[in-house]
Amino acid sequence: MSQSEQPPKVSEQIERQAEKAGRQAEQRVAKPYEEVREQVAPALSDILGRAERAYAAYLEAQKEVGKAYRDSELEAEKAYKENEQQARSARDGSIRQALKIRDEAVNKALKARDEAIVLAEQSYRKATEQAEKAYRDSEQRAKNGCDDGIRQALKTYEGAIAQAWKKREGTIEQSWKIYAKETE
After folding, report:
1. Would you place residue 37 in the very low, low, confident or very high pLDDT band (cuts 50, 70, 90)?
2. Can you give the residue ranges of every domain in the chain?
3. Fewer beta carbons under 10 A from the terminal one: N or C of the chain?
4. Would you state the pLDDT for residue 22?
């Protein structure tokens, strides 16, 4: 991970630590010119010692910078995993909610279907009963009409027979009367 990819706080902290180590090294190295001139020979070994200490401080600062980068990388990884877990939890919650809504809708549809079937069956039974009643009523009216027709036909027949009988008798009587007059 490059320094430009690090969060600003970490890179600023690293720069400050590096500057501090550099200033300390400069302070150790920068001594007044006169002091250096007085101690040229012993100062050379002192300068080398200070340079070694500055180099060691530089190496230590590099280690700290590397550690800071690694810590920053671990924090970024941890934040990513937390965000990923939150997103996964939100997704799972949304899926559960969608499934719950779907199940409720399916249950309502099933209930509505069952109610519609019950109403249709009731309507069918009622219509069947009405049709049966209408049939029985029509059949009864037809029988009654038929019976009335038969009774009327019988009555008419009996009336016609009775009238024909009367006519026959009248004709026979008249014929006997005529015959009796002629035989006299």
Report:
1. low
2. 3-125
3. C
4. 65
- In the chain, alpha helices (H): 8-29, 33-38, 40-183
Mapped to the 3 state alphabet, what secondary structure does 33-44 carry?
A: HHHHHHCHHHHH
| Tokens found for residue 128 | 């069947």
- Mean pLDDT for the stretch of residues 40-64: 82
- In the predicted model, what is the mean pLDDT of residues 29-46? 57
Residues 6+ apart with CB under 8 A from 1: 69, 72, 73
CA distance 54 to 46: 12
Highest mean pLDDT among 62-71, 103-112, 147-156: 103-112
Question: 106, 51 in Cβ contact below 8 A?
Answer: no
CA-angle at 28, arms to 26 and 31, nearest 5°: 90
- How many residues appear in the chain? 184
